[in-house]
Amino acid sequence: MGWKTLDDMDLNGKRVLVRVDINVPIVDGVVTDSTRIRRLMPTIRDILAAGGRPILLAHFGRPGGERRKNLSLSQLVPTLERAFETKVLFADDCVGPAAEEAAEALQPGQVLLLENTRFHANETKNDPDLAAGMARLGDIYCNDAFSAAHRAHSSTEAIARLLPSCAGRLMQAELEALEKALGKPERPVTAVVGGAKVSTKLELLGNLIEKVDYLVIGGGMANTFLVAKGMPVGKSLAERIMKDTAAEILAKAEAAGCTIVLPSDVVVAEKFESHAPHQILPADRCPDEGMILDAGPDSLATIKAIFEKSRTLIWNGPLGAFELEPFDAATNAAALKAAALTRAGKLISVAGGGDTVAALNASGAAGDFTYISTAGGAFLEWMEGKTLPGVAALMQAD
Ligand code: 3PG
Ligand code: MG
Fold first, then answer.
1. Average pLDDT value for the chain
2. Cα 182–254–372 angle (5° rounding)?
3. Which of 136, 197, 252, 304 is flagged as catalytic?
4. Taking the alpha carbons of 98, 65, 20, 364 in that order, is the dihedral positive or negative?
5. How far apart are CA 391 and CA 43, in angstroms?
């Protein structure tokens, strides 16, 4: 694919700087979703098995260049030790003498975790000097952080130019799975795009209509399109100032031969609360006091019928307020339909994004999807057809 993998590198006795994404959700010091950590295991296992010494470079949260105790990666050491089933040492900086000593002292079979790269303000500026400091710690650079590959930072981009570089197993798996589903996708292709805002996914929508046969729009974003079609949405989440843009996307889709699917009926409540009293109404009948919280049964039937006609499905963003019961109904039912079609060998299904993966896990559908990406932002940018700097740097590395 234009970059090297761990198989191309001589790892024996080498210190391998592995850029990982362990930006996992933590509540009261406890990791609530360890998907990203579990998915790193093949890379760590393979480096250790080949006699390499893994040194992990990672960011955590957005500390903005300040050392913030609550964003220290030290709190992840026990979780990593459990996952990797090996000793994980910690250095409290990702560059400098202490990190160099720790890297030097690392024994075969051990893993070294370096402190949050974003404690250095220059990390997010892709500073080559900071990258050079990191490069001193290793012999080889391995980027396994697909979900951070949309960032051109010292630890994802500049460093790949300084050391012999390769992609890790997760990076490979992510790119191969996305390439397989979207590179030359089996048609018809359907994309489900949900979530709150049109403004953040505008470029994505504009790009997708050129690539997919059906575009199912859900969540708050769908309301903006209903407004563009002159329908009332009451107190629903909607970006009214984006309505002309939404109208342009509708016109462009028609010209491109892409069918945009908006809700034909909606579940409306007056409060944004679990089990708020609600009713099902045609999409053009939302009352002034009403809030659209989910797609209705007619919409769901249309979505299921489209899934049945499709060969490839790409999913990012829930169809409704999935965090509130029962407004997760359309998301869950559509996810289970996609899972069943995938199980039956009729559909290739790929999903990504934190909310999406949480929703698919909650519905029990995730296990049957062809592929679940660990990435949110990077997955979207990949879908838009953008070059990811972290991936591009690997291609240019020798
Ligand atoms: C993520 O969690 O989406 C990645 O780790 C990237 O984080 P960022 O959006 O703070 O760059
Ligand atoms: Mg993000």
1. 94
2. 25
3. 197
4. positive
5. 17
DSSP code, position 5 = B
Distance CA 349, CA 366 (A): 10
Q: Is 323 annotated as a binding residue?
A: yes
Nearest 10 degrees: Cα torsion 189, 190, 195, 198: 70
Give the model confidence (pLDDT) of 234-252 as tens digits.
Answer: 999 999 999 999 999 999 9
CA distance from start to end of the chain = 14
Q: Which of 14, 19, 36, 169 is catalytic?
A: 36
pLDDT digits (tens, 9 = 90+) for 314-336: 999 999 998 899 999 999 999 99
User: Does pLDDT of 70 surpass 80?
Assistant: yes
Q: pTM of the full predicted structure?
A: 0.83
Average pLDDT of the residues in 219-247 = 95
Place of tokens 């990791």: 31
Tokens coding 368: 């049957």
Tokens standing for residue 44: 């760590």
Q: How far is the CA of 323 from the centre of ligand 2 (A)?
A: 19
- SS3 label, residue 102: helix
CB atoms under 10 Å from CB of 189, counted, come to 21
Positive or negative: CA dihedral 49, 375, 180, 141: negative
Q: What is the pLDDT of residues 183-202, one digit of tens each?
A: 788 999 999 999 877 787 87
Which residue's CA is the nearest one to ligand 1's atom 7? Answer: 148
| Distance between CA atoms of residues 2 and 391, nearest Å | 10
pLDDT tens sequence across 151-184 = 999 999 999 999 999 999 999 999 988 887 777 8
Cβ pair 190, 212 in contact under 8 A: yes
Average pLDDT over residues 343-353: 94
Does the annotation mark 36 as catalytic? Answer: yes
Q: Judge whether 45 is annotated as a binding position.
A: no
Ligand-binding site membership of 151 (annotated) = yes
Burial, 161: exposed, middle or buried (Cβ in 10 Å; 0-12, 13-18, 19+)? Answer: middle
- Can you tell me the distance from the alpha carbon of 126 to that of 137, in angstroms, rounded to the nearest whole number? 18
Q: Which residues contact 398 (CB under 8 A, 6 or more apart)?
A: 164
CA distance 181 to 41: 24
Nearest residue CA, atom 6 of ligand 1? 148
Catalytic residue from among 65, 206, 234, 377: 377
Residues in CB range of 108: below 8 A, 6 or more apart = 48, 51, 53
